[in-house]
Design brief:
Blueprint lengths: L3 E10 L4 E8 L4 E3 L7 E9 L2 E5 L2 E5 L4 E5 L4 E4 L6 E9 L6
Antiparallel strand pairs: 1-2, 2-9, 3-8, 4-7, 4-9, 5-6, 5-8
């Protein structure tokens, strides 16, 4: 269903309780993301292209410069609807007592 790549820019930091990941998806690519533990919030920003995030049966379409915050403990997926490769950044904030 297309190619996608993730690159960890800043690995999980127990003190700061966050990690930062850069992603790219080819046109038409689809990716189901890992469900994280309760208390993890994901902040995703589209840097280039477009992305559709699906969660709880709803779709959220994001364009360049747009961002979305959501509970990463809910099942979610990403899709590039076409028109070229997209690029995005994810910040995962672990607001749990133990972090990971």
């Amino acid at each position: 269903e297309g190619a996608y790549r993730f690159q960890t820019l800043f690995p999980y930091d127990r003190k700061r309780k966050l990690e930062i990941i850069r992603g790219e998806m080819e046109s038409g690519a689809f990716c189901e993301d890992n469900v994280r533990p309760e208390g993890v919030t994901e902040y995703i920003t589209v840097i280039r292209g477009r992305m559709i995030l699906e969660m709880d049966g709803r779709q959220y379409e994001l364009g360049e410069g747009q961002a979305l915050r959501f509970c990463a403990a809910r099942a979610h997926s990403y899709r590039n609807p076409g028109g070229g490769r997209d690029c995005f950044q994810m910040v995962l904030l672990y607001e749990t007592p133990d972090g990971l």
